[in-house]
């Protein structure tokens, strides 16, 4: 039962998340030889004010 958590900045559309879920599920089923029904994905959307890169908050760039 593969479980994958994707953490990303908020702002992606439902269609983008659907496409990503499809691609990741396909890769896992190919690689591990499991049924897609056992693959679980969690999308954690983070506010850009809670993410910093190179010492700068993403909300301020």
UniProtKB/TrEMBL annotation:
InterPro entries per the record? 4-OT-like_dom, Tautomerase/MIF_sf
Keyword Manganese recorded? no
- Pfam families, alphabetized: Tautomerase
Asked if the keyword Isomerase belongs to this entry, the reply reads yes
The record lists the membrane-crossing segments as none
* Keyword annotations of the record: Isomerase
Q: Where is the 4-oxalocrotonate tautomerase-like domain?
A: 2-59
Q: Name one GO molecular function term.
A: isomerase activity
UniProt family annotation: Belongs to the 4-oxalocrotonate tautomerase family.
Protein name in UniProt:
4-oxalocrotonate tautomerase
